[in-house]
Amino acid sequence: MAPGSVVRYVTDEEAPVFPLKMDKLMELSKELIETRFGTTKPELLADEFEFRFPIVELNKERFVEAFSSFKLDDAFPDMINDYYGR
């Protein structure tokens, strides 16, 4: 942000209505996580999906290929993912 810039926060009344109800959003989020972030079910990712990180940019096909090749369960056999809080 440029020096001297003014940040204007949007009020709840001004915010656009989110297109998904909370239950549906949670269901889809869990499905995405449980499918290794869409790598075992790429149809969950938009066709124009892009993974962007400061040093890498991958389109959907390259993301699925790269991320699905990570053998996290082999590297960390006792890893416990606590995505949902227990």
Mind explaining what this structure looks like?
It is a single chain. With 86 residues, this protein is an alpha+beta fold. The protein is 31% helix and 9% strand. The chain contains three helices and two strands, in the order αββαα. A two-stranded antiparallel ribbon has the order 1-2. The longest helix has 13 residues, at 22-34. It is extended, with a radius of gyration of 18 Å. The model has no long low-confidence stretch (mean pLDDT 86).
Q: What is the string of helix and strand elements?
A: HEEHH
Radius of gyration: 18 Å
Mean pLDDT: 86
Task: Characterize the overall form.
Answer: extended
The proportion of residues forming helix, as a percent range, comes to 25-40%
Uncertain regions spanning at least 5 consecutive residues: none
Number of H- or I-type helical stretches:
3
Strand order of the largest sheet: 1-2
Task: Write the SSE topology.
Blueprint: H1 22-34, E1 50-53, E2 56-59, H2 60-69, H3 72-75
Antiparallel strand pairs: 1-2
Characteristics of this structure?
31% helix; extended; alpha+beta; 86 residues; two-stranded antiparallel sheet
